[in-house]
Structures are given as C-alpha cells and as structure tokens.
C-alpha cells in the first residue's frame, strides 16, 4: 500500500465532495516533533470509563503522512488514549493496518515527561484496550473508508472512459497518434492519483507498466506520407529500424527502458562476430504464439498433471512482459501487447480455476503448490468455507494467509456478519458442525473476547454462562489458551468490567456479569496455586511478525522475483557444467540473494528515513536479479569467445578482420561484466548493508583481474592493427587462463580463513 494513502486522502478532501465526519469529532492538523505532518481526530468522551483502575481522560485517532516509528511501516493509523491513576498519567497506543485490523499488542506506558515514556506491562488489559480502540474509532473509520472507496471508484470510472476513447483511437493510430498519446498520458495521471489513495496499488502498477510499454511503442510510429506509401515495403521497414535506432540513442524509445546509458553499447554487444552480422530481432508475435500453443495444450490436461505445469507457464508468460520492461531483442507491435494481455488473463483464469477445484475436492497438498494463484482467489472461497463449515479449508486459507485472521464485515445469504466468530455463533446448533470451524479459528489466534451483539457479552462469557452451548467444547479443546490459563480469565474480567460500566447494561445482566467476574477470579486463584500454567498465552504469529519478516515474505511470494530467481538458477546450472569444479561454489554464491540477511538488516535500521517501502525493495531486488542474469549470460558467452581466441593466439600470426571483431566482442563483454560488478558492489546509500565484506573483497579481486585482461586485449587489438607483421607475443596467451581462474581465485579468497569455517558466499545482492 501507499505508506500514507489515508493521509493523502484526508489531505485532498477539499477536492472531493461527500467528505463527512461523525458528530462531535474534530479534525486538526498537527506536526510531529520530527517534522512529520499528521491529522488528529479528537474523539468525544461519551461516558466515564475505567480499565483496571486507569480512568480514561481523552482520546484521539492519528493519521501520519509518513512513519515516525518502525511500527508505522505496518500501520496506517493509530488510536491514542490518555489515562489517569493515582495522579499519574498514562498513554495507550493501538495500531491498525490498511484493513482496519490491529496487528500488535497495545502499547501502554507511563508518561514521565513530554518526551519520556516507561512501558507498563498490562497484558491482562490488552483485550479491553483493543475493544476500546475499536469501538471508539469504528464510526469514524467507516466514514473514511466509504469516502476512500468513493474517490477511487470515481477515478477508476475516469480511467475506463479514457480506455474507451483509446479503443476508438486505436482503429487508426497513424492518423490519431497525437490524441492517442495524450489519452495514454492522461490515463497515467489518473493511475498516479489512484496510487496516492489506494491501499492496494499493486494492480495499478501493473497497469502503469502496460501503459509505459504501449506509449513507448506508439512513440516510434510516424504517420506515413503520400510518397512513402508508394515506396517499397522493404524501404519502409529500413526507415522504421533507423528511427528506432535514433530513438534508443536519445533514451526515449522502447528499446531503452532499463539501462538507457548502455543502449548503444548493448546493441553493439549483440553483434555476433562469428557470423559477421547483427542478430535479427526476434518476432514477439512468435514468442506469444508459442506460449499460446502451450496454453491450448494445457486446457486438455488432467488436473493432476496441470498442477505440475501451470506455475511454470504463468511465470513464463509474465516473464515475457518483464523482458520487455528490461532488455529484449524483439520487434513489438501494439497488437502483440494486446495479445499478451489476453494470454496473461487466460493463464491466470486457468490457474485460479485449477486452485478452486483442488480446494473444493480437498486436495490441499496440490493446492499448496499453486502459490502464484493464492492471492488471486476471490472472497467467495472464504464464504464457501464458512457456509459449508469446511474446517480444513479454513485452516488452509489461514495458514497460507489467503484470508486475514480478522476477516470481518461479510455477507452470507443476505445477512451481514461482523466477524468469523460471530458467524459460528449465529449458525451453531448440535446438527451444524460449526464447532470444528471455531476450533480452527481459535488455534490460529482469533479472540473470543469480542462482544456478541445480541447478548452484549464477550463470546467467551456466553460459553462460560451456558455449559450446554453447542460451541462450549471449544474451550476444552483449547484449554491451554482458555480455561487452563489465568491470563484468559484476567483479560475476560477486564472486558466484563467495561460491560458493567455501560449505562445501557440491564440490571439482570449486571448481576450475571458480576457473578461471572467473581467466578473467574476464583479460578485464577485455583490455577495460581494448583496448576503450573505457562503465562502469558502464546502470541498469534501475525502479532509477532517483524517488519523485515513481513517484507521478505512478500518478496518470496512475488511472481516477478520468483521468475528471475528460477531463470538465474537455470542459467547457472547450465554455466556450471562448463566451468571447473573449483569454481562452482563461487558462481553459486555470487548468484544467491540472502533474503534472511535482508530481513535482519531491515529490523536493525535505526534511522527511519532509511527504511524503504516494499515496492522500493522489490524494485532493487529485481534490478539486481536482472544484472546477475546478464552477468551469467555474458560469462557463458565469454567461454566460447575465449576458446576461439585461444586457438587464434596459438597460430601466432596477424589477426584477421573477423578475429579483431572477436577480440572487440570479448573486450565489450569484459567491460560490461566489470560494470555489473561495480553496480553490485557499490555500497553508497546502502542502509541495510546486505553484502558481506569478504564476498565484496572477492568480487573486487574479480573486477581487478577483469581490468588486467581488458588491457591485454586492448593491447592485442592495437598490436594487430599496426603495420608490423610480427606475431603477438606468446605470453599474451597466458592472459586467457587468467579469466578462467577468476572465480577460482574468488573462491579461494573467501575460503581462506583461520577459523576453518565454511565460506559465506551469500548475499552478493544488496538493497540500495
């Protein structure tokens, strides 16, 4: 999500209609002591409220423009409350994410001074604190989310209008080129606005990528003149190729979308010196057709076989798009781009359908293999699991984070349910197996301390007061988390006291609640003296996950990163077979991204200004994966060139024109490899320092030897072009053995240590 999507929305409220706030809520603009602006919503105190002897004095909701603490990178807004007890003031923070779920324990602290806070361990009050935060902010947040949905919907409608206009203009792009380009640019502006206000801009970035590719392609098209229409087709093609070449040199054409400064050099590197010509551009339509034929074949496959093939097909289709975004050797038309989008959608639907069938048939091991399609499942799969009380399906959806633990506000059979637990309670009978579903939810960390609307009591209290309740057994099945844990009773009592303090609490209900509080207190004493329970309760994983762990999990699940990871592994496997065994470990280490190290580095960052967003981290990882892939491909090609050149040198004669081209080609390969090494080794602006010093030193050694070999090759070229007929010096041939030994040298350097430990060849990729 955008780090400050909600802030951006509130900040732009005057540009849109229908922005409204609940009664007695006041909006203020504030600036944090760090200089970060934020919005503060003052919330009303409807009644006196006390939690554990702490009396609520005032509270508000804050929405910051950017993070002022590490937790803010997972939070979109937070609730703040101030309490007083025995003349001492305390502060409570409860953090919520973009889905309005709290994702950490409440932060409760004693206020020593304006800038000094001492954390107070009040875990027994956690449930009451989160209940307070939710009820106090619910109406305001609902209005903000409704406003957000309205703004995004209006922008999406504008985008669709422009899309319809582009469809008409595309019927004659030559004639409508100017209007077509303006419409695309306007679409990009609309998408940029959506990104500002959207909690989930991932699909928007995909659209932006398509627009950039389309725009770059259209920019190379010129309206044909009357004279040019009469010329031969071959002449037209030659002119278009020339125009593309000029466009690439300017850095504006589609061919120069990734490393523009190397566009000219790369076109030279594409020269096949052995064949004395530039390799012709491949047909993008042919590449799409090959994937289309594979998709056609997969349509008739059995599900068992398709499960093993569909992931690779999907990544290959996406890989074709990502190749266009970086570097490629294709001639591309607008029709090709349209066909690629159609093919992507087709493969996506094929994968989603396969995953749904696997889940419905309860083939969960097979469904787990379809990782790329997990996030694409519609919400209806959750509703299906609930309606049919599929406990194992719920377990799968929660385990693989397909549905959130706090999934709420859904409709089944025209009835709205505020939570998963509420659905189980309202549909629980002895004949309906809701117990298994609730048991799964509790094991995954769903709380039973939320309020049940009809009784006004926490769900756990309902079960304790009704021993014959159909769901009562869930307490026994999870005794370690509930009835055998003192903290469960302590937290329940704090929530029950909130119920007692409500002015709307009926007298008969007050009597029941008071008796239950006494009963719970008695059980706490019994557990304290007779049962050695482990307090506190185990924390749900979603509350323990650090910022680094969250981001790395997203990176590992990202299809683009997985595509390049698999591509690198395939290329390295091919390259290793051509290298001496001593070089295998070094090249394998060079091509490995250590995600765990990245996670640890993110968690260690103290300067919040240096923490990158997920999109920034992903962009850097992909950029470096592309560099590594290029390095491996160049190394593979260099082996062929070295073998040919070694034979030429042994002849001890003046080089021919073709052999000079061979030298020039190898020289360019080494130059580019040296550039890649520098890009990967550059530590400037490297906040999380994801490169080990000894690996850095090894690559520096490789870079130095590359430079030495480059100088020798340059000297050989110069010598061969002189008028002298002397043969090249025999010792020059020794230089080519040097390049073969580069990775071996790097490997020996990294393994040479006094401790005798295994070499650490990981994490050559860094996040800059």
Structural commentary:
The longest helix is centred in the first third of the chain and has 44 residues. The chain has 30 helices and 14 strands. The strands form four sheets. Strands 1, 2, 3, 4, 5, 6, 7 and 8 form an eight-stranded antiparallel sheet that branches. The protein has a two-stranded antiparallel ribbon with strand order 9-10. The protein folds into four domains: 143 residues, no CATH class; 73 residues; 135 residues, no CATH class; 204 residues. β5 and β6 form a beta hairpin. The radius of gyration is 32 Å and the shape is elongated. α22 runs antiparallel to α25, α24 crosses α30 and α28 packs antiparallel against α30. It is an alpha+beta fold. The two termini are 20 Å apart. The C terminus is likely disordered. This is Coiled-coil-containing protein. It comes from Legionella moravica.
């Amino acid at each position: 999500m955008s780090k400050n999507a909600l802030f951006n929305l509130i900040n732009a409220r005057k540009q849109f209609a229908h922005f409204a706030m609940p009664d007695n809520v006041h909006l203020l603009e504030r600036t944090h002591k760090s200089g970060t602006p934020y919005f503060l919503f003052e919330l009303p105190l409807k009644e006196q409220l006390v939690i554990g002897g702490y009396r609520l004095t005032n509270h508000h909701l804050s929405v910051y423009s950017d993070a002022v603490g590490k937790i803010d990178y997972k939070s979109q807004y937070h609730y703040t409350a101030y309490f007083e007890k025995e003349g001492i003031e305390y502060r409570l923070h409860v953090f919520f994410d973009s889905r309005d779920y709290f994702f950490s324990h409440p932060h409760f602290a004693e206020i020593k001074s304006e800038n000094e806070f001492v954390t107070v361990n009040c875990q027994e009050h956690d449930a009451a604190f989160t209940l307070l935060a939710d009820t106090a902010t619910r109406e305001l947040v609902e209005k903000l989310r409704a406003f957000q949905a309205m703004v995004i919907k209006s922008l999406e409608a504008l985008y669709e209008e422009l899309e319809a206009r582009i469809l008409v203009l595309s019927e004659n792009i030559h004639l409508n080129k100017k209007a077509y380009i303006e419409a695309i640019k306007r679409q990009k502006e609309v998408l940029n606005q959506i990104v500002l206000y959207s909690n989930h801009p991932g699909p928007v970035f995909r659209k932006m990528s398509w627009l950039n590719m389309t725009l770059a392609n259209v920019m190379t098209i010129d309206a044909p003149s009357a004279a040019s229409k009469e010329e031969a087709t071959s002449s037209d093609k030659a002119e278009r190729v020339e125009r593309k070449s000029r466009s690439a040199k300017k850095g504006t054409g589609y061919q120069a979308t990734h490393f523009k400064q190397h566009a000219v050099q790369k076109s030279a590197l594409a020269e096949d010196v052995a064949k004395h010509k530039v390799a012709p551009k491949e047909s993008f339509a042919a590449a799409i057709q090959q994937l289309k034929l594979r998709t056609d074949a997969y349509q008739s496959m059995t599900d068992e076989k398709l499960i093993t093939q569909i992931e690779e097909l999907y990544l290959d289709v996406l890989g074709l798009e990502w190749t266009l975004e970086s570097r490629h050797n294709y001639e591309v038309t607008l029709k090709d781009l349209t066909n690629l989008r159609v093919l992507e959608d087709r493969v996506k639907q094929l994968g989603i359908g396969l995953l749904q069938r696997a889940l419905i048939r309860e083939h969960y091991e097979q469904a787990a293999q379809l990782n790329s399609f997990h996030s694409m499942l519609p919400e209806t799969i959750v509703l299906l699991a609930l309606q049919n009380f599929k406990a194992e399906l719920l377990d799968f959806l929660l385990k693989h984070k397909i549905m959130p633990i706090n999934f709420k506000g859904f409709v089944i059979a025209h009835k709205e349910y505020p939570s998963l637990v509420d659905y189980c309670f309202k549909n629980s009978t002895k004949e309906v197996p809701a117990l298994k579903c609730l048991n799964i939810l509790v094991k995954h960390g769903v709380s039973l301390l939320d309020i049940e609307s009809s009784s006004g009591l926490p769900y756990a209290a309902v079960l304790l007061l009704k021993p014959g309740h159909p769901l009562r057994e869930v307490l026994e099945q999870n005794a370690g988390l509930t009835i055998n844990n003192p903290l469960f009773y302590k937290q329940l009592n704090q929530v029950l006291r909130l119920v007692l303090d409500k002015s709307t609490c009926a007298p008969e209900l007050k009597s029941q609640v008071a008796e239950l509080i006494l009963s719970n207190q008695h059980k706490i004493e019994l557990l304290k003296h007779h049962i050695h329970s482990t307090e506190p309760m185990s924390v749900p994983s979603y509350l323990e996950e650090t910022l680094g762990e969250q981001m790395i999990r997203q990176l590992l699940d990202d299809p683009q990163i997985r595509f390049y990871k698999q591509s690198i592994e395939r290329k390295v496997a091919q390259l290793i077979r051509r290298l001496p065994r001593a070089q295998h470990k070094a090249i394998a280490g060079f091509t490995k991204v250590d995600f765990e190290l990245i996670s640890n580095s993110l968690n260690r960052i103290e300067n919040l200004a240096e923490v990158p967003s997920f999109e920034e981290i992903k962009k850097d990882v992909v950029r470096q994966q592309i560099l590594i892939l290029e390095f491996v491909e160049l190394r593979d090609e260099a082996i062929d060139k070295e073998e040919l050149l070694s034979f030429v040198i042994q002849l001890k004669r003046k080089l021919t024109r073709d052999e000079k081209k061979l030298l020039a080609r190898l020289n360019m390969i080494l130059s580019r490899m040296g550039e890649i090494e520098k890009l990967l080794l550059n530590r400037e602006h490297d906040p999380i320092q994801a490169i080990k010093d000894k690996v850095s030193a090894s690559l520096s050694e490789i870079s130095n030897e590359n430079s030495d070999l480059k100088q020798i090759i340059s000297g050989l070229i110069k010598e061969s072009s002189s008028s002298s007929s002397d043969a090249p010096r025999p010792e020059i041939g020794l230089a080519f053995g040097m390049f073969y030994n580069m990775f071996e040298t790097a490997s020996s350097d990294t393994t040479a240590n006094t401790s005798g430990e295994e070499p650490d060849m990981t994490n050559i990729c860094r996040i800059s």
